[in-house]
Amino acid sequence: MAVTLKEHLIAVPEDAGRLILVLSEQAKKISQGFFGNLHIAGSKNIYGEEQLELDKWSDKLILTELEKSSLVRNFASEEQGEIIEFSKAEGSWGITVDPLDGVSCVATNLAVGTIVGMFNEGNVLEKGTKTDAVIYFLYGPLTTMVYAYKGKGVNEFVLDEKRNEFLMRHENIHIPKGTIFGSGGLKSKWTGPHTKFIEELEKKDYKLRFSGSLVADFNQVLHYGGLFSYPATTDKPDGKLRLLFEANPLAFIAREAGGSSTNGQKPILEIVPKKISDTTPLYLGGKKEIELAERFLKK
């Protein structure tokens, strides 16, 4: 019989396990919440992007349940303008959340996800090396969950809807050798070094795979190898993707799965955030691909 998420979590500290279970319960609700929550909400997030009702609903759902848990000291969300402090918290956790990554793909029924970073010190403005755990949920043909606790490997679970439980699908995932790549940004606005890097991948017969949903595209790399990138561009030299909510958590997963990450100049996990809205160029994947990227990009 497949191992349940609850059974597998005996390997991590008790409070971390409780938080991961709380978050898994909210993912079940989000996976059922797409129908009826897809209208434009009439508001924008801190990056000036229009929010769906589902964005705001998912964000509120997660925030409310984390506050109820009493385990979380502070909370930062892509949908909020500032860090939220939970004054009655008994625990010391800091949580970062992208409630609905890839929201532009919802209208065309492509896979989207939820990304969560966990810091036991309670400070979400730590560099990524201070991360203790990361979870992401992918809402596609199946609802899956990937989580990594530092030093405990990367594990994937799938939601069995009949049992309403997450069951083990893959244990101790390592990024394999592969030849897929994705690159965001308009090609006309790529920098010269990034263009040359992509041309080198194409010479090596890497195949393009890019959906516009970061968590879905990274999930392909995690299982099939290769690299995902969203580079600095001439109009966005600091990149587009969010350091706290997207880059750091997935860079942590990549590292725990034997891979690596860079912004072109240094590892993503070594960047010290200055504010919750920080963005960064992002390269994620196998160590070989990241080393190749830095050969072209490092100044």
Question: How is this structure best summarized?
Answer:
With 299 residues, the protein is α+β, with helices and mostly antiparallel strands. It has two domains: 5-170, 2-Layer Sandwich (Fructose-1,6-Bisphosphatase, Chain A, domain 1); 180-297, D-Maltodextrin-Binding Protein, domain 2, CATH 3.40.190.80.
Please describe what this structure looks like.
The protein is of the alpha+beta class and 299 residues long. The chain folds into 2 domains: 5-170, Fructose-1,6-Bisphosphatase, Chain A, domain 1 (2-Layer Sandwich), CATH 3.30.540.10; 180-297, D-Maltodextrin-Binding Protein, domain 2 (3-Layer(aba) Sandwich). It is built from 7 helices and 17 strands. The protein has an 8-stranded mixed β-sheet, with helices on both faces. A hairpin with a 6-residue loop joins β3 (72-77) and β4. α4 packs across α7 (287-297). The longest helix has 19 residues, at 14-32. It is globular and about 50 Å long. The N and C termini lie far apart (52 Å). The model is unreliable at 38-43 (pLDDT under 50).
